[in-house]
């Protein structure tokens, strides 16, 4: 097996983290390591390891999830709490106030996040009215309105993503798919919706059977599993509706493309360097790092019909509102010739 360079770095950071934790654990417990009469310096060194070094190593290990101040502060608080259990009480006594101060600071951040949630609820009617008056679909417009009017904090982004799921699962059934001239469906010539319906049936059958068997073994575990399965069904239903109601659209200055709740992207025409069509597009390895695909799932593997390359990485929104940059997008539509004619005309302009 070939280990890629990024993975090898993750292993290195993991080993360094393990070394930091083990060394701090042993320094207070091995008799062969003499403890100085004034142990405050050693304790301060351990606190720095748990408060700063360990969180930085964890951030480096999970850098694919992105860096945020909130994540770093959370790891710092967890590090201080962990230090309380690693450092013996006799040595930690002069610093006993630190964990409570850290938890208190985290509590302040939690109150601030609750305030953002309240602010979001306050702005929901205004956001809904603006979306209704505009021409952009809810899938693209709602997160942007929330970001502009409330905040781009991760907790708000997550709540906005969950709100989209419940909207498409329960409040979108009266809507009809767009039939405008420059709208192109991605799923009608595939088995995507049939596959998702089969998935719903499988989850329901598994829930009815396994839940009752597990109920006699562990009530709590059976309830947790039931909640997760209900959530999964809601998500799949919302995903079906999202695919149906949000075809790819070619607008004056950009392409808006999505495939369910799991991925969406806006591609400005001025960011396009070239477009591969036909066999050249089909030969593209869509699993290559930096390529996002908008190809509806089918019972057999489908090839892209066009691959759009960017002059610089473009941001896409993934599951639960997470952001990631890509240097190309592979697309497969139901009406290739009409799509190609429309795109080439726009690129020419």
From TrEMBL:
**Domain of life of the native organism:** Bacteria
From what organism does this protein derive? Filibacter tadaridae
Write out the coiled-coil annotation as residue ranges.
none
Keyword terms of this UniProt record: Membrane, Transmembrane, Transmembrane helix
Q: Is Membrane tagged as a keyword?
A: yes
* TM annotation in the entry: 12-30, 42-60, 72-91, 97-121, 192-213, 219-238
Q: What is this protein called?
A: Beta-carotene 15,15'-monooxygenase
The answer on whether this UniProt entry bears the keyword Membrane reads: yes
